[in-house]
């Protein structure tokens, strides 16, 4: 009896808050266009001629105009739907290459979104196809990359204007932004940096959006936003794609090399713990 009880405790601990990997693509096959969740998903380019893929690397060659890349982490029509207490976390490794281009613009942008239609293809416009992304919902982060100490502050936002005809990530006015966070400053070329965007559905009325810019385990910059119904829009709880929009090489880098994209879903520890304890009590009584 005691042994079985201990075994149950161990099993329970293993279940608590365990992340489910929804997508983890490291492009090890040198192909960015194949999809086989959870380890492969098409990583679509607005300008495919500017993207070079080799095993482990998706290099986006930037110039003076914007480029986008997006990937789906859930099948069409089946978005990840967060319940209260659950989290969705995007972790992306990038390497800035060739040169930083000084700027104080927040030109490195990405977000977690949901749209009623998926566009699993290259050459999709800034507003989707037939402006389908104009009403896409979600949360975003924007910041600048720099090898100097002078660079725009990171901030997190909620896409709150869904009817103004705005592009998905190109127009600040489509968002309600949080206050300034830190700076991704004094960076080095040919170094892996990690972007972490976390959506924490803390209560029925609060979604906490958090961003961290890391080198290894060292936090270089953070930003956050608490959505308690900002912009007169409900909390967004459905997500199926991750989209990057680099507005220019300025404030980003001449080449941004994507190494890894990981999306994790974290169930609610409290509920699991209660269910587990309930199960344990039932188990003990029945013995
Ligand atoms: Ca692949
Ligand atoms: Ca739409
Ligand atoms: Ca370039």
Notes on the structure:
The chain has 287 residues and is mostly beta strands. The chain has a single domain (19-266), classed as Jelly Rolls. Helix content is 11%, strand content 38%. It is built from two helices and 17 strands. It has helices at residues 2-15, 269-286; strands spanning 20-25, 43-45, 51-54, 57-61, 67-72, 80-81, 87-97, 108-114, 137-143, 155-159, 175-177, 193-203, 206-215, 218-227, 238-239, 241-246, 255-266. Strands 1, 3, 4, 7, 12, 13, 14 and 17 form an eight-stranded antiparallel β-sheet that branches. A seven-stranded antiparallel β-sheet has the order 2-5-16-8-9-10-11, with no helix packed on it. Strand 13 (206-215) and strand 14 (218-227) form a beta hairpin. Helix 1 (2-15) packs antiparallel against helix 2. Residues 5-14 and 279-287 have low confidence and may be disordered. Bound molecules: calcium ion (3 copies). One calcium ion binds next to loops.
How is this fold's topology laid out?
Blueprint: H1 2-15, E1 20-25, E2 43-45, E3 51-54, E4 57-61, E5 67-72, E6 80-81, E7 87-97, E8 108-114, E9 137-143, E10 155-159, E11 175-177, E12 193-203, E13 206-215, E14 218-227, E15 238-239, E16 241-246, E17 255-266, H2 269-286
Antiparallel strand pairs: 1-17, 2-5, 3-4, 4-17, 5-16, 6-15, 7-12, 7-17, 8-9, 8-16, 9-10, 10-11, 12-13, 13-14
Bound molecules: calcium ion (3 copies).
